[in-house]
Design brief:
Helix content: 25-40%
Distance between the termini: 12 Å
Strand content: 15-25%
Radius of gyration: 21 Å
Oligomer: single chain
Strand order of the largest sheet: 3-2-1-4-5-6-7
Shape: globular
CATH class of the largest domain: Alpha Beta
Number of strands: 13
Number of helices: 15
Structural class: alpha/beta
Length: 365
């Protein structure tokens, strides 16, 4: 069976990219099709045969995709997959727009509906000027229409969580099965290297509006507790401008650097509604509890009262109230329970479930 992989754009590293690396282990010969590829920003992709679209030759930077909203779908429609039996699109945007003939099975591993068009629309445009909002409305209407059209092209859907499964059903009217994404970790090494909890809380996240880090900053400003934030993004300067001295921004860190902060933190805070959130699983793999908003994919990966806690209202006051109760609740958290729960999301489990799905497809298609 000849297989191809398709991904929105290859210009960063995160959860989706871990999915692609795991799929490469299952299908090592599969080429990777994408709209644009930046070798400097994505050195992880050098193990793939990367095939890019006509957008690769456009003058703007490879991470400036927002300037080409009308061309992203066309870029994927321009590819030819006649030589393949199975094409797997890994996408939260327009990679599902590919066109395949009946003999080629198109399986979409959906990371999310297009966030800035649907559920995250308000957060995405919250900081934009009135003029931008007015000008963008007809563009958004068109892209929503187009997104629903291309969502009908895959022959089958897999989703990364029940949260995304519900969105795919509600927005695209498509059914799907859930296969949780892989979190690649050395559990034995982490168990042997437990560290005592430090005096700080930790956030590991892109600094983007939909992540709602402003809720955490407001809460910790008032609590005066130590908070360390790891990550970069468009919200960085705004968040720094409202944060007090007890909040430290550490920027981008490598995985090796990040390990020390996971090991020594008191708990990991996730203030936004997440599709899945690998950080929650990583935190538990180090034996650390998670404090998260009670909605989205995190509710599927954290066991309340055993590996973490949820704040109920999406505001700083609700988060503050929960953290003030930490002293008594922490005593019930066992590091071993956190680690065992994290094992449910291993890379080995992902590869096994994905391969079983493909084998069943091959029998029935």
């Amino acid at each position: 069976m000849k297989v191809a992989l398709v991904y929105d754009r290859v210009n960063k590293f995160g959860g989706a990219e871990r999915v692609l690396l795991a799929l490469h282990e299952i299908f090592p010969e599969a080429p990777l099709y994408t709209s644009v590829y930046d070798k400097k920003l994505a050195p992880w992709a050098n193990i793939f045969e990367v095939r890019t679209s006509f957008l690769q030759n456009f003058p703007l930077p490879k991470n400036a995709h927002e300037y080409y909203p009308f061309l992203m779908g066309l870029a994927f429609e321009s590819f030819n997959f006649d030589e393949f039996d199975l094409v797997i699109s890994v996408t939260h945007e327009f990679a599902k727009a590919i066109i395949t003939k009946p003999k080629t099975f198109h399986l979409c591993y959906c990371l999310n509906s297009v966030g800035y068009l649907w559920d995250n629309y308000e957060d995405y445009f919250s900081g934009k000027s009135g003029l931008v909002k007015v000008v963008s409305k007809p563009i958004v209407r068109y892209l929503r229409w187009y997104d629903k059209i291309i969502a009908q092209r895959p022959d089958a859907y897999l989703t990364i969580s029940k949260t995304v499964q519900e969105r795919v059903r509600r927005i695209y009217k498509k059914e799907s099965e859930v296969i949780y994404p892989p979190v690649d970790m050395n559990y034995e090494l982490r168990i042997k290297n437990y560290a005592k909890a430090g005096d700080y809380y930790l956030i590991v996240s892109r600094l983007a509006p939909q992540k709602r880090l402003d809720i955490a900053v407001e809460a910790f400003n008032k609590l005066r507790l130590q908070l360390k934030i790891i990550g970069i993004g468009k919200e960085e300067q705004r968040l720094k401008s409202i944060a007090k001295s007890n909040i430290e921004f550490l920027g981008y860190l490598t995985d090796e650097q990040l390990v020390g902060y996971y090991k020594s933190c008191r708990a990991v805070v996730i203030p936004g509604e997440e599709d899945f959130n690998i950080v929650a699983v990583e935190a538990q793999s180090f034996g650390k509890p998670v404090i998260a908003y009670n909605k989205g994919g995190v509710t599927e990966t954290v066991i309340e009262g055993k590996t973490g806690w949820f704040f109920k209202e999406h505001n700083a006051g609700s988060l503050m109230s929960l953290i003030r109760q930490m002293g008594q609740m922490e005593k019930k958290i066992k590091q071993e329970d956190c680690v065992e729960n994290a094992k449910r999301f291993s890379k080995e489990r992902f590869k096994k479930e994905f391969l079983e799905y493909v084998r069943n497809f091959k029998k029935n298609y």
